[in-house]
Specification:
The protein has about 525 residues and is of the alpha+beta class. It has a domain at about 220-355 and about 430-530: Outer membrane efflux proteins (OEP), CATH 1.20.1600.10. The chain has helices at about 5-20, 30-45, 85-95, 95-115, 195-200, 200-265, 270-305, 320-325, 335-345, 345-370, 410-480, 485-520, and strands at about 80, 120-135, 135-150, 155-170, 175-190, 315, 375-385, 400-405, 525, 530. The longest helix is centred in the C-terminal third of the chain and has 68 residues, at about 410-480. It is elongated and about 135 Å long.
């Protein structure tokens, strides 16, 4: 066998080597940075100032902005008491659901990035090389192509391609050499797919989906901060009830000891002493149960904050005192004004409104798909180099200009898509109406909840004062033998109920107020995660 390497074969090997080198995996960090930059340029361009502060929206493995919250899942031993603002900050940085929402926002931007790429130049390149044996003929050959395609908003598609083929005959009578082909194709739709809005529909929908996701993310952030604050106050309420239960138990211990002294000197019947002891044991059990509930709610808050449950943690009990010292004003606008504001500003309602337009466009797209497909096509091929039976054959230049027609006679699938699109439009309209009714219901309910909680707190506060006075009076009467143990025990039980009911009404008002501002879409989220009007 005759074997030698010509200059052409050397060039082929060199090209293959370069190709293999070019197929190496790209630099991971550099590629990630490039994609991240493109994604957040897309998000920033679609983000409107009215949506909220542009902070705390980047995924965890991307460097955040200067206003982003930076914290970790660990707390120092000296810093285990969390204020409300710091709790919200930690939750914003660590909460797993919040992280998922940021990732959904990122992924939607990736979808838009891909949709835009459909109207950018597409480059492609292929190649192969190998040994060929055909009877007595032996040769080494290689071929490759490099090209680009691009789609335009008119529906036109342009493609350019350069193909090279080379063969070096080792044995036999065939001729070797290098051949090339340059080809260009232009196709312009004239009927189906010729309207600009139809051609750009996928890109349009991707852009609107990006806008919807930004709205949804900002709507989520508002609901999120209300959820965290609500959970914080629920833990404080559980702590307050546990403290009340502990104080109640200690008081009943004192009552029992006092009753025992009176019973020892014959000034109190034994059955009343038994009543005091029974209530004392019940209070002990209630305190254990209340303490358990507090610890459980605290652990649940740790999970929400993204902290390990074994993290030593305590909340700032002064937050309840701040609530008690604050007034309970109603909003400075009426219920009807709140409803109008919500319908005009709610981000989820804006999405529902725009979704109707999306459904209407899908109907037009389905109708366009039922049209005949007529395209103006122009192609050219320019061939050069040696003629070779194994590779390109006889070199000839060709050109073609003409029309391609598909009458699209079978449109059953397209008809189904059209009818389905109409049904989706009806569904979107119903969803729009449902959400409108839901928003009105939420505003009316939140407004009533605020009014009820404010009034109930006033009533419970007055009841708490009376319960304290009643207990103190019955204790004094017991000392002088003018009241029995049952009166004292009943007064103490009512005092405990009044304490818990007052704290519960206070927290209920705060939660209802936050819920009202959230539902009316007047609550805004600051870069530190807290809320403002």
């Amino acid at each position: 066998m005759r074997f030698f390497i010509t200059s052409n074969l050397f060039l082929l090997i060199l090209c293959v080597s370069i190709t293999v080198t070019g197929c190496a995996a790209p630099d991971r960090d550099k590629l990630k940075t490039e994609i991240d930059d493109q994604v957040y340029n897309i998000i920033d361009a679609k983000w409107e100032d009215s949506f909220g502060s542009k902070a705390n929206y980047k995924v965890s493995d991307v460097t955040g902005g200067p206003d982003d919250i930076k914290t970790s899942r660990t707390l120092s031993r000296k810093d285990t008491t969390l204020t409300l603002p710091r709790t919200v900050s930690i939750a914003t940085a660590n909460n797993r659901e919040y992280q998922l929402e940021k990732e959904l926002l990122y992924q939607k931007a990736l979808d838009l990035r891909l949709a835009r790429h459909e109207f950018e130049p597409w480059f492609f390149g292929t190649g192969e090389a190998g040994y060929l044996k055909d009877g007595a003929d032996e040769a080494v050959e290689g071929q490759g192509s490099l090209g680009v395609q691009k789609m335009f908003a008119t529906g036109a598609q342009i493609g350019l391609n350069v193909s090279l083929a080379w063969i070096d005959v080792l044995t036999g009578n065939a001729d070797g050499g290098l051949s090339r082909i340059f080809s260009a194709t232009i196709a312009q739709p004239l009927m189906r797919g010729s309207d600009k809005s139809i051609v750009l529909e996928n890109l349009t929908q991707a852009q609107r989906d990006m806008l919807y996701q930004i709205r949804s993310f900002n709507r989520y952030r508002k609901a999120f901060v209300v959820t965290i604050i609500t959970q914080y106050y629920e833990v404080l309420l559980a702590y307050d009830e546990a403290q009340n239960a502990q104080a109640n138990y200690k008081t009943l211990v004192d009552v029992y000891e006092w009753a025992k002294k009176l019973a020892d000197v014959g000034r109190l019947p034994l059955f009343e002493l038994d009543q005091a002891r029974q209530d004392m044991l019940t209070a002990s059990d209630d305190y254990i149960a209340a303490q358990k509930i507090y610890e459980q709610t605290l652990d649940e808050l740790k999970i929400t904050l993204g902290l390990p449950t074994e993290t030593p943690l305590a909340l700032d009990v002064e937050e309840l005192e701040i609530l008690r010292a604050a007034e309970m004003p109603m909003p400075g606008f009426s219920e009807d004004e709140s409803i109008d504001a919500a319908l005009g500003r709610r981000l989820d309602f804006a999405n529902a409104t725009d979704a109707i337009d999306d459904s209407q466009r899908k109907i037009l797209l389905a109708l366009d798909n039922m049209r005949s497909d007529l395209k103006l096509v122009a192609t050219t091929e320019n061939k050069g180099g040696a003629s070779d039976p194994v590779t390109l054959g006889k070199a000839k230049d060709t050109a073609f200009v003409g029309l391609q027609l598909d009458l699209n006679l079978d449109t059953v699938a397209e008809e189904n898509e059209f009818r389905s699109a109409m049904l989706v439009l009806n569904q979107q309209r119903r969803e729009y109406e449902r959400l409108m009714d839901t928003i009105v219901l939420e505003i009316r309910r939140a407004y009533r909840d605020m009014a009820e909680a404010a009034e109930r707190y006033k009533v419970q506060s007055q009841g708490l004062l009376l319960a304290k006075q009643r207990f103190e009076n019955t204790m004094s009467l017991l000392e002088y033998g003018r009241a029995n143990t049952r009166d004292v025990l009943d007064a103490r039980r009512d005092l405990l109920r009044a304490q818990n009911a007052t704290s519960e009404a206070l927290v209920s008002y705060t939660v209802a107020m936050l819920g009202f501002y959230r539902d009316a879409e007047v609550l805004q989220v600051r870069p530190d995660g807290m809320w403002q009007l």
